[in-house]
């Protein structure tokens, strides 16, 4: 059996050797052979391919020990088995391994490039196998799909990403008992991003407006996630030259902050100021692009004065806008952006419950760790002491509707 295994490997590597690959030591080949035998000897009711399991497991072990050449050699051979047996549900794990941080940190640029080319070829091959992908989706967990989207985003495979995210979006009604509102809206955000990456701006706008409306209706204008989608929507407006709509949106956020009865306790101290200046800078950018304000300049001056009184701090930025007319006429600074839509750094759909704040912009966490949990509707009474008992009851009822009823009602097409 060993002779057959060795002969099969030698024939395979002769036909499939890639640039920058080094020889695979015979001792390692023997160790891999023993691993395959061990897997084959184990009883497994799943009836999955033992050699494929052994192969992906061995690739993972090599990556842990940073033996990238051996990992790639076994990955090549394992992929040939996947193709031969049609077990394409396994190919995604192989892709995750070959695009891991250990591979990207490997100092051999030639081998890194060879591995990158190989993973691109796998993606192109798999993306064309619709039946294979369908089976793979049904067997992948949400965490695995999350990693796949991150991988596709990194590879800029927008058409296939759209297929997956649209498929997930279409599944939201069927999974309303298990998917949280956070997960559904994260999928919606990625769908907006994918539409934009494909230059389908009208569809991105329509979807983002719908999601922002529902968050605002249920949680209020100043909820961190509402603000997150308001910021995304403003960037979509400016990207599509709807500067008037961007100004209206920013003004509404500022007016909510100026309303002392709605002063948010969800936001940490000082975040209100970050939000204020983020909205003002988008207003300023939109005005510079449109050539005029949406409303009278005096109305903005009055609004800024109210905000200054409410959120006055020893903050240098307040000094910058002491003369609002002078400040608004100055060119915007890139450090205050982005003012138009930019693709996310990481295309994840799972996020932590904590919000990452960057310059007043709450954004989806860049390092996904776990599925978001459904928050208790009673949290509303803890975070907003300014509401009356009747208002709290109404909001709790709205939250129940938002988290437990079908998403079809909330996010209808």
How would you describe this protein?
InterPro entries: TPR-like_helical_dom_sf. By secondary structure, the chain is an all-alpha fold. It has 2 domains: 140 residues, no CATH class; 214 residues, no CATH class. The protein contains 21 helices and 2 strands. The protein has a two-stranded antiparallel ribbon with strand order 1-2. A hairpin with a 2-residue loop joins strand 1 and strand 2. The chain is elongated, with a radius of gyration of 26 Å. About 11% of the residues have low confidence.
Strand order of the largest sheet: 1-2
Work out the radius of gyration.
Answer: 26 Å
The figure for the number of domains is 2
Helix % is: 55-70%
Q: What is the makeup of the main sheet?
A: 2 strands, antiparallel
Terminal-residue CA separation: 59 Å
The SS-based structural class is mainly alpha
Percent strand equals under 5%
Could you say which overall geometry the principal axes of the C-alpha atoms support?
elongated
Instruction: Tell me the total number of β-strands.
Output: 2
Number of distinct helices? 21
| Poorly predicted ranges | 131-135, 352-387, 403-408
Q: Mean of residue pLDDT?
A: 76
What letter string, H or E per element, gives the SSE order? HHHHHHHHHHHHHHHHHHEEHHH
